[in-house]
Amino acid sequence: MGRTATRDPRDHAAAPRLCAHPECLEEGLHPAPKSRDRLRDYFWFCKQHAREYNAAWDYCRGLGQSDIDRIIRQDTVWGRPTWPLGMQRMAGQGGEFRMKDSTGFFSEDDAKAESPPDDSPIGTELWAMRALDLAPPLTLTGLKARYKELAKLLHPDVNGGDSEAEERLKRINLAYATLRANFTSKAEAS
User: Fold this and answer.
1) CA contacts within 13 A on the Cβ side of 74
2) How many Å apart are CA 144 and CA 138, to the nearest integer?
3) Own/partner pairs, 110-118, CB within 8 angstroms, 24+ separation
4) Which entry of 9, 96, 135, 184 is 20 to 30 Å from 70 by CA?
């Protein structure tokens, strides 16, 4: 298109940027993307020529309907990968999410994991670590990551309202609250 005069935003005495239209000598104050592939690379126009350019601009020019539909689907989820509820997948794998349950907490036979012991803070902390399938040394970052992983796995929307999954989620919430409170009390003590 045309010429552009660049100026340093810190230099107030610099010459104004001219409109990119070849026959215009007005100041170019309004940016317009050069192409669909270069959306952050601009022509700078005066108000009148910016209106003309925008009226003729067609982001989808040259694209087929399937490409346009793909762009619309990607934009509705901000370009992030998605899958149907109940079909959570591990990154890079195509199979369903599987969790290693070395404590037996999620098995129906394990009655000890149902509720925390009432007798000692150490026993409660150990119960909470077993409930979240964590081992020492425990970090707050590791605790949060494990909680998020289990909360997503056991969320009622993912499990179709399964009451057993809901009860498990309640135990996970209690275990997380117990361990997190332990971290905050240690942080306040120091």
Assistant:
1) 7
2) 10
3) 113/171, 114/171, 115/171, 116/174, 116/175, 116/178
4) 96
**Tens digit of pLDDT for each residue in 174-189?**
999 988 888 777 766 6
Q: What single letter denotes the amino acid at residue 135? A: A
Q: What is the pTM of this model?
A: 0.40
Secondary structure (3-state) at 166:
helix
Q: Which residues share a beta bridge with 148?
A: none
Angle between helices 121-131 and 163-189 (to 10 degrees): 130
Residue given tokens 């309640």 in the structure block: 170
Tell me: the pLDDT tens digits for 21-53? 999 999 999 999 988 888 889 999 999 999 999
Q: Nearest to residue 179, comparing CAs of 148, 153, 144, 155?
A: 144
Q: How far apart are the C-alpha atoms of 90 and 7, rounded to whole Å?
A: 49
CB 116 within 8 A of CB 174: yes
Q: Please check whether residue 44 is in contact with residue 20, taking contact to mean a CB–CB distance below 8 angstroms.
A: yes
Amino acid of residue 65: Q
CA dist 111 and 142 (Å) reads 26
Q: Is the dihedral of CA 102, 108, 114, 117 positive or negative?
A: negative
